Amino acid sequence: MSRVNESVTLEDKVVEILSRLSPKSLLRFKCIHKSWCTLINSPSFVAKHLSNSLDNKLSSSSCILLNRSQFHIFPDQSWKREVLWSMINLSIDSDVHNLHYDVKPLNIPFSRDDHNPVQIQGYCNGIVCLIEGDNVLLCNPSTREFRLLPNSCLLVPHPQGKFELETTFHGMGFGYDCKAKEYKVVQIIENCEYSDDEQTYQHCIAYPYTAEVYTTAANFWKEIKIDISSSIHPYPFSVYSKGFCYWFATDGKECILSFDLGDEIFHKIQLPSKIESDFQFCGLFLYNESITSYCCRYDPSEDSKLFEIWVMDGYGGVKSSWTKLLTVGPSKGIEYPLTLWKCDELLMVASVRRVTSYNSSTGNLKNLHIPPIMHQVTDLQALIYEESLVPIK
Q: Which residues contact 61 (CB under 8 A, 6 or more apart)?
């Protein structure tokens, strides 16, 4: 007679099954019984569900969060900006390379000014960090929770005259501090004064950057030390990986700025040097938990672009090696990559502002039908998204 493994209880099996379901289903199941609500809200279950989502490497599909805007102009010449979010599930048949996808509209339920864009500044564990006008928000699209962050401690009102300090948002990152076990937002502030009332670039007096960190547990901003050169200009959107935030930046030439969320220290990382002189690096995204950068060469005679995708080996430190992952093109009608969702499948923006997926192995280029079909599309952003139950409030 075989012995029954009594260490695995029925409750353990239920927890295992539930932890592999979607947040949408689990939010409905919370209404079944008080005990289920307590279970699904518990930190241990949230952590287990997140771990299963992040470890689902055998899945043949990828989920993409897509953000974009379009303008509506009315007969009286007034206008508003409509922000549209979509979840795109992509998969591909490995044998015949047929691309399958479905698109679901997503409603982010926070009030906003119809004239401001909503831009993604960072992403980690199912939570996106957003900027809308002067507001910074954290949002979990899976649970439809959001949190408005308190006002910055470094940003001041716009100056009215000369020799008044002007502070400008210049870069934001969001991620998880593995040491303190809490989520943080870091913000880089550019500071200057103008020597005349016209506030022209020629009369701008630049001062060193300042920086601040917000922690979800404390719910306030604190100023931190930043010792990077004021000649470094980070792009606003950041990429998070393994306790670090990364920005594509320029400092005479392209580079990467990183921030250790645990030690709260900034570093500068060099991009690959073994590229041809007519290639130029343009941006970053995340692929398989690795920082990935792309460079571009434009051929005006053919009106085509050739892209190279490079992956950084290691993370965080100043010294990092790079490996070229793939070459895309030359292709006509492609503006820039959005994200790499499989090792040879690249989501890109076409010149007509449509989203397309390009397979570097087959050369197949497929436009994605993402309703509503728009013409004046701006602020296109995309990232690989994992659903989670991680709470915002």
A: 89, 90, 91
